[in-house]
Amino acid sequence: MQPSNSGDVRYDDPWYDALASGWGEQAGAGVPPPRREPGAARSADVYLEVQRSAAFQEVRSRYRRFVVPAVVVFLAWYVAYVVTATTAPDLMARPVAGAVNLGMLAGLGQFLTTFLFTWAYVRHARLRRDRAALELRWDTQELARERGGAS
To answer: Whole domain around residue 67: which residue ranges?
Structure first.
């Protein structure tokens, strides 16, 4: 069958994705059942065991202790900038040096704080989490190998 402007489309056409989106298919038709490998349950147990471990919880708490306050501070700074720019335009238009005004400096401050927070996050991760996360990764792989769930 040749494609035409009347809506005829060949199913082997790579641009035809109606079946991929599920349109026009019956529920469950042609969908293969999920494969269950023998070691899958054992490896899932390994990951659940690691997730419940004190070391994993410590890595997550270190992450949260940094990220949550950082996000709150950054969003507060951003909202303060936007609210000040919209409610006090005279303040933001106050000249600082030549054509540079307070609004421009605050906008550049947004970029500066983005870079500072990125640097602080990378430093925190390198100093406080990366080594522990790498040890967890090795422990997880060893446990999975011992139980026959991974190679």
So the answer is: 40-146
